[in-house]
Amino acid sequence: MNISTKRIENNKNFDYELDFIDNLFSLNNFKINIKGHEDINATISKIQETFNLEINARLIDEDDEENVDLSFIFNENIYKTKNLGSSSDSTELKADKSVNFQTTIELKSFYSEEFNEIGLFKAFFPVDLKEIKTFHNEFETVTYSRNGIEYFYDCLRINLNGKQYDVTQIKNEIKGFYIFECLQEQNYEDFSDACFSIQQAIGFINRFMVGGEKFVFDTAKKIHYTNYIRPTIKGMYSPIKTNPYAHLGIDKKIADNFVKVLTRISLDNLSNLVHKIHTESEFSVAILVILEATSIRSLLIIPSSFSVIIEQLSKHLSIVESGLEKPITDNDLQKKIIGDLHKVIDDNKQALSDDSVLKLKRRLNEINKPVNKEHLTNNEKLTRPFEQLSIKLTLHDIAIIEHRNDLLHGNILLKSDENNDEEKINLYMTYVSAKLFTIISKLILKSIGYDGYIYNQAKYLEKQMNIETDEAYFERI
Question: What distance in Å separates the CA atoms of residue 86 and residue 107, rounded to the nearest whole number?
């Protein structure tokens, strides 16, 4: 097993930011002033994953909702917003014939007037306590210290385009946070883009991509809040497992063989994955599709989506080659294989006509016909990058990949003569989904330089499928 954690000097202090966020979470009809309209009563409240402004006036016309520029004063600080969610107006006619207008505005974002677009930023993503799980199970980590306590398994360090980023998990009594920090100065837009790439990379490995509300603080601890970019996504599959006893169907004797053998994603591997997501849109799209398709647990969507991903990544990762290539390069081996096949035909010729035997034997002479690398079949194109990355595919893997043809021709349920009732169809689609994810994981992880084990998501289903393969629960790539 590779190193689980690196002990480094890494002191952190999140007290101010956490206190500030706690205060925001407690807001309930807190009185504020609308800049330029200080005579109007207004309040702000925290409602689920957003903030609502209640204003006793009609300040915004429906035609201006997309171009609003609203400022409000809260605790003697000025905050601006240009992104509004839903809004509603109400009118109350009182007994004294006066009219009371009420406007409710959902804030998609707001930021301090003094927020600096260049600096050292910290982004806080609130998550449920149950989602705070050690990074130790999938990743190599770095240590960090906070309030006099050293933590070993809750911080990741990523390098991207010459800058370092830390991702730290923390929790208190009622909620947890994923905290993203840049350790060198940069502009806010670049930081946000880097965070999104890191979110995807971590989400692919541990199947939890944080999103939703984001509280970003600059060097001077001024805030920029957003909640409208992308929600938190919980996927189904994780390619990396380090505890062989925690999985379905693995006998203890088999699990014993993998203790202290299974590997983690190194920080270099993670940085490479983040870089590919950040610079190659094909990787970003593939990982987002994986997470989104599996988050809704739909067997109608997952196999089709995964087939598209394999085709996209195969095209993207395939290295253009030219010339002719013989499948068998050793002439003596070629003669032996052809001779053995002649014998197989002869041994079964009683079940064949003389004409069929002759046609089969003629074809054997073409068995080692050179392949033109510039004119591959569609299925050869799909498997080519696996060959180029030295990823071994079994005949069973190739058969699963070739379900692409069924899906493209409308056989979304992958029906066959053997799979024609609902229970068998669902089981087979579950198996194909798990198998395709394992194959995709090999392609993605091998391309970032990962050298270790991945979890075979489909192996435990073999007993239910009444099939038997030579595949292991954990495969080294």
Answer: 8
Task: Write the pLDDT tens digit of every residue in 196-207.
Answer: 999 999 999 999
Is residue 265 over pLDDT 60? yes
Q: What is the pLDDT of residue 231?
A: 92
Judge if 383 and 469 occupy the same domain: yes
pLDDT digits (tens, 9 = 90+) for 286-342: 999 999 999 999 888 999 999 999 999 999 998 877 677 778 888 888 888 888 888
130 close to 174: Cβ distance less than 8 angstroms:
no
Question: Does residue 385 form part of some domain?
Answer: yes
CA distance 222 to 1: 43
| Amino acid found at 129 | L
Q: Tell me how far CA of residue 189 lies from CA of 186, 216, 224, in angstroms.
A: 9, 12, 12
- Residue 235's domain comprises 115-256
Is residue 136 within 8 Å of residue 5, measured between CB atoms?
yes
Q: What share of the chain is helix, strand, coil (3-state, %, to 5)?
A: 40, 25, 35
DSSP 318: P
Judge if 234 and 186 occupy the same domain: yes
By DSSP bridging, strand 141-142 and strand 99-107 are: unpaired
Residues 251 and 305 in one domain: no
Digit-coded pLDDT (tens) for 363-409: 887 788 777 666 677 778 888 889 889 999 888 888 888 887 777 66
Whether 40 is covered by a domain: the verdict is: yes
C-alpha to C-alpha distance for 45 and 130, rounded to whole angstroms: 26
The more confidently predicted of residues 450 and 40 is: 450
> Are 169 and 150 in the same domain?
yes
64 near 80, Cβ under 8 Å? no
CA distance 41 to 38: 8
- The Cβ of residue 430 has, within 10 Å, a number of other Cβ atoms equal to 18
E-assigned strand segments in 147-266:
149-151, 155-160, 163-171, 176-182, 186-187, 208-209, 214-217, 223-226, 233-234
Q: Are 61 and 17 in contact (CB under 8 A)?
A: no
**Residue in 214, 212, 264, 206 with CA at minimum distance from that of residue 235:** 206
Total domains, the chain: 4
**End-to-end CA separation in angstroms for the chain:** 14
Inter-residue contact 293 to 302 (CB < 8 Å): yes
Distance CA 421, CA 426 (A): 9
Our CA angle for 357, 359, 363, nearest 5°, is: 115
